[in-house]
Amino acid sequence: MGVTRILCQHVVNTKYDDFPKEVIEQAKLCILNILGVTFGGYKTRIGQLHVKMAKDIGGGIPEATIIGDGAKVSCPLASYANGNLAFALDYEDMINYIIHPGYISVSSGLAIGEVVKSSGKEFITAIILAYEIASRIALSMQPTIERGSKVWGEQYTPFAATITAGKLLGLDEDQMDIAFGITGTYATVPSAYKYFGIVKDTRPMREVKLGWGWMCMAGVFGALSAKEGFRGGYGILDGDEGFWIMAGSDRCDFDKMTENLGNKYLIMETEFKVHPSIGWVHPVYMATKELVDKYELRPEHIEKIIVSGMQINRIDDYSPAGSVDAMFSLPYTIATTILREKLLPDMYSEEKISDPRVQELLKKIKCVPDPEADRLWFEKQWLVFTIEMIINGGKHLNRQIIWPKERPTFGKNEVKQKFWDLANLVVSAEQAEKILQTVEKLESLSDISELVDMLY
Amino acid sequence: MSITRKLAKFAVNLKFEDLPENVVFQAKLNILNILGKALAGYKVNLAKPYLNLAMSIGGGKEDATLIGNGRKIACAPAAFFNSSLATMLDYDDTLHWALVHPGNAAISAALATGELTKKNGKDIITSVVLGYEIGGRISLAIQPTMERFHKVWGLGNQAFAAAPPAGKMLNLTEEQMTSTLGITGTYAIVPSAWKYLGEGTRPMREVKMGWGWSCMVGVVAALAAREGLRMLQPSNILEGEEGWYIMHGSDKCEFNKMTEELGTRWDILKTAIKAYPACYLIFGPCDATKEALEKERIRIKDIEKIIVKGGRWIKERLSDYEPKGVVDAQFSTQWAIAMVIMGIPPGPEWCSEERLYDPNARQLAKKVILELDPDADRAWLEEGKSLNTVEIFTKGGKKVSGFVDHPKGEQPNPFTPDEIRDTFKRLAAYVLNPMQINKIVDMVENLEKLKNISELTALLSPPA
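The joint structure predicted for all components is written out below.
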């Protein structure tokens, strides 16, 4: 039996009762995190543009709700809109920096779940499976350094939506295999370096990012197409001509896809984003925050900042032209951290980006490459940065930071606070509290629409 | 100026008056061809699930008409549906030795968006030409080396045949058109051909190479750019070492080919109209069979075996003695040969459920033996020649053979305008009445005089 079939079989056969309690608790936390960042995304310019598009195409079919907005559109377009909203702030979650399973599984799950009236238990089951299987596919097909530095992307991402949607639609093993095949056919090309490419070449950055919402819709559509009766195309992940080579990789560790299935849960390794930006800059955010707090630094104290680290020429943008640029600008992250900006959509508003205090700080920051940090990134996926601040009177403050070694705990309390801050931008405190309580007892919900009805 | 920007500028600035007469004439023929093929596609059993899916995306809007069905839905899923219909029988058109099939994408995208913005016939012709020119040039430029081609290959370029027409119909500015191409390259699909017609791929996937989806990618990208989503970086989607070619699995890119002779060389004139509802590479054997049978009339029951010589394509990827569904049948050399010998008119009847379970057809397909001609693949890839020999042996010991190197429809042997019109009439008759059919032929022939494209789309389904 090929790997595709083994994974599909696992998705179809796994039940809620198969999961350990801590896995279920983690899934609920993942869901809460995504709901929060989706609310935040609703308050962004690009989020609003995607909502408008979803209504233009999918309006008039009141099937599934656009979060934050409340409008109901067709299920594929709700997945599109919510997928884009959940990623608009780059504040979701990730596993090993190579896949973002939360935004896509929750968005697709809510859209399909609302249509088929899934229970809380069914919803949780689908989400855990999506994290598990899509992450396994992602981990197994990472390219060599040589290939990965030429072309890369997260093309496996749509499978997460197919798994969630397929599970909630009740696809059988055969249909799930077909759904995987269709999703693998509709998956987008690896375009990461045309996104966060070399700064001088790729700014202003493209505002559809890596096509997150489109990927979500593609994955949902794969499942819907199989349900509709399309056939053939089995085993998309298998063999020498399989998905890995289609997606730009130069190798695939097929055993990794299926080993220890059902015994190990990758959702437990989810990293909740601590800052609304590309994950690479998060260690620098933490190090800067630490220095700012410790020395009670204010913008006027700063004379110069030199920061070195991995892949610096892809994030050393000193003059971000818009919100997406700013989310991928290491200097902007440092500047706004020094200004103690709240981690809310407003930190990327046009006013904020052009704020003279921000611009003044950007001028004082210098980024320099670090070949050793690059090596550690490619070989071990370590994030290594060194920050040197020269403050009034010529005093030097130095801090080297290495993740995952020094990654702070970002657990239940932190996720709740993040949710709370973002939800309050869209719904009342009372409603936010209700959502929080509902997610905490999600397994007792008989129809996921009850939750969806609170999300606007 | 970046290549992406140059193409966007060309797309925005091209006017109907810039098109030579023969280009306009060819575009109109291509449109008629695709409409006929799409109407015939409506009679295939997969039209129903495609319809349901298109409705599930945008059935709540009334922007653009569904061919065959007549209903109006949002323009993006209408493009998805119509393009899926046009490729349903694998009977559309190709450019540059089948590296791209621009017709289904360009025409479906132009009609859907043009209906939304109430464009006229001249606009449609101009935008359709853009799809062939831009989609074709990008496809040509990014073709891989032979070594890479054998490992991974695909048709994600299709979306670039849909995006320029859609952007043109939506009145995009040069900046918006640039963003459209950028977003198209971001949403375009991975190269999946060998998971479609490779080893161990039967039953074949019925969504094929995602034709309708790719068309929708181009339309959605144009809609997104119109909405205000931007991609304006100096090194845009097509440029440089990290550009579209490597994203789409290739290992080389001839960048100059993307913009070469834009506005003076019209590749649409090289369109190959497909002659059979089958993979392009089976056309050689089909024509060779016809040629053999024209030499001598042979009764089906007297046939002992049919030997077809062709490349690895024929022998390995297009061999299927027992097709299990419509797509398998379209990609089975044995099946196509059986249909030709039985004299079944090319169209939906080649793969109807009834036909697929016809014991006589099955028996005949089993008599086809595929033999490898080691030179055939090279000749196709390097010279665009099919190199197919067919030998029919009778039980009485007789042998007749046929050989073609340029099957009907290919450049040296193109269809005449009359043949294209006749095929349209024959295929449209599966869905429409003779009065409508004649009206469509007239309307497309005089397309530059049409005031509103909705007059044409209104004719593309049976009267209520």
